[in-house]
């Protein structure tokens, strides 16, 4: 049967018979924005980390009873969202719910003043001490109160 199907396809190509699924020209897609959504048990412990230490504002919050189910932090053109596992379990399809608790996320934030971030994180345990990486970035990493890894980086090249 497979040989017959292959022969029919070859004949269709040879004789110019139109295919039933012609390849459509792909239009270019431009990504306008990408926003990480980090999953956590509780959002409330995250608030001081992003608001007080890093100066983000809470642009959106979605309550779930007396707790938060979702929050969106913004600063300039940068955005990061947090959602509780409980909210995902109520909201998402089964396949997403099953994968939600697989592990922490890693964020890499490029900043214009690493010293200011070091000052803001002075009493937070560094999971990666400050270093200059082989790719030219001065960086260090911490974990947020929910256990997600966040690396802050600034170009080590002299700023003009």
Describe the protein in words.
The protein is an alpha/beta fold. It is 25% helix and 34% strand. The strands form two sheets. A four-stranded mixed beta sheet has the order 1-4-3-2. A four-stranded mixed beta sheet has the order 5-8-7-6, with helices on one face.
Overall pLDDT metric: 85
**What would you report as the Rg, rounded to the nearest angstrom?**
24 Å
**Number of DSSP helices?**
5
Please identify, by name, the CATH architecture of the largest domain: Roll
The main β sheet shows up as: 4 strands, mixed
Q: Which structural class best describes the helix and strand composition?
A: alpha/beta
Shape field: globular
What is the succession of H and E elements?
Answer: HEHEEEHHEHEEE
- Provide the low-confidence segments as ranges: 1-15
Terminal residue distance: 69 Å
User: What strand line-up does the widest sheet have?
Assistant: 1-4-3-2
CATH superfamily of the largest domain: 2,3-Dihydroxybiphenyl 1,2-Dioxygenase, domain 1
For the record, what CATH class of the largest domain applies?
Answer: Alpha Beta
What is the tally of beta strands?
Answer: 8
Kindly state the percentage of residues in helix.
Answer: 25-40%
* Oligomeric organization of the protein chains: single chain
Share of β-strand residues: 25-35%
How many domains make up the coordinates?
Answer: 2
Q: What are its keywords?
A:
160 residues, alpha/beta, 2,3-Dihydroxybiphenyl 1,2-Dioxygenase, domain 1, Signal recognition particle alu RNA binding heterodimer, srp9/1, four-stranded mixed β-sheet, disordered N terminus
């Amino acid at each position: 049967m497979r040989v017959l199907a292959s022969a029919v396809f070859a004949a269709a190509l040879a004789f110019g018979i139109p295919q039933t699924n012609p390849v459509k020209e792909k239009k270019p897609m431009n990504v306008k924005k990408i926003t990480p959504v980090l999953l956590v048990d509780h959002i409330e412990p995250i608030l001081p980390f992003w608001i007080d230490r890093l100066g983000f504002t809470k642009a959106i919050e979605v309550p779930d009873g007396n707790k938060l189910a979702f929050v969106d932090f913004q600063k300039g053109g940068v955005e990061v969202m947090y959602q509780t596992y409980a909210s995902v379990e109520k909201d998402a399809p089964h396949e997403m719910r099953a994968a939600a608790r697989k592990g922490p996320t890693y964020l890499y934030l490029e900043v214009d003043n690493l010293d200011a971030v070091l000052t803001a994180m002075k009493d937070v345990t560094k999971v990666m001490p400050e270093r200059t990486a082989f790719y030219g970035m001065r960086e260090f990493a911490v974990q947020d109160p929910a256990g997600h890894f966040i690396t802050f980086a600034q170009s080590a090249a002299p700023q003009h």
